[in-house]
Amino acid sequence: MNKIITEITPLSEKDCFYLVDRTKDEFNFPIHHHDEYELNFVEGCGGARRVVGDSIEELGEFDLCLVGHGIEHAWEQHECKSRRIREITIQFSSDLFGEVLLNKNQMCGIRNMLQDSSKGVAFSLQAIMKVYSRFEKLVKAESGFDQMIELMCILHDLSGDSGKRILASSSFAKAKVSSDSRRVAKAQEYISRHYREELRLNDVASLVGMTPTSFSRFFKLRTGRSFSDYVIDFRLGTAIRELMDSTTSIAEICYECGFNNVSNFNRIFRKKKKCSPKEFRELYQKHKKLV
Known about the structure:
Helix content is 45%, strand content 16%. By secondary structure, the protein is of the alpha+beta class. The strands form three sheets. Strands 2-9-4-7-10-11 form a six-stranded antiparallel sheet. A three-stranded antiparallel sheet has the order 6-5-8, with no helix packed on it. A two-stranded parallel sheet has the order 1-3. A hairpin with a 2-residue loop joins strand 5 and strand 6. Helix 2 crosses helix 4, helix 3 packs antiparallel against helix 4 and helix 7 packs across helix 8. The longest helix is centred in the C-terminal third of the chain and has 19 residues.
């Protein structure tokens, strides 16, 4: 199969970051990934579609997203009618701040946000409006030092956005799932190893030494999802990765990922992703290039 294009960014070892401010009349860059972090602001993108991993969302007039190392992403024309789209892209390497600095207490918010970016992070409109003027200052700053200060302020402000959302699923991004709860972590590890099999709430609750009712409440409180929703999302993310990376039939992927029948798989897929498994595969296939 063709592979998703790998972008070689223009960053050199001596650069803090790469910045481009452009106005264009359409989105035409294919789905791609790269090693660097990318903070991408778009204005005039109403009706466009953002693809980050297994997340596909139609956009309003503004979009701001942070993507990290290796996650596939693109902004697609879709229903966007605007012929004046402004895009500000900032790319920076994973070692820009250094491990020592990132581990300081004052950097906790930025550190956690950068970790989440391996699955893509979308920011609320309120946060976008808050940093809008900072982007203008960053673009117009005369010195690289001033630009660096503005970038850090932008990242700091965004890290405090209570409305920010993680986009791609952990199972799709193959991201390590971590939890500050030993019981939740044990349950998540069990799900990751047995998602192909029938998973019963009673069995997992017993595994972590809790009653089903108590575990159900505890799990949702700690993860934000019910046990059944978490299992479905994990299976779905794994299935979508297979749709992208293999030529395996949709029916085979359905059963290999723990779904009990194809019609149920299609129904859940459409409900969660607003398209069918076939349509999702075709979306990625049309953007694939040989590299």
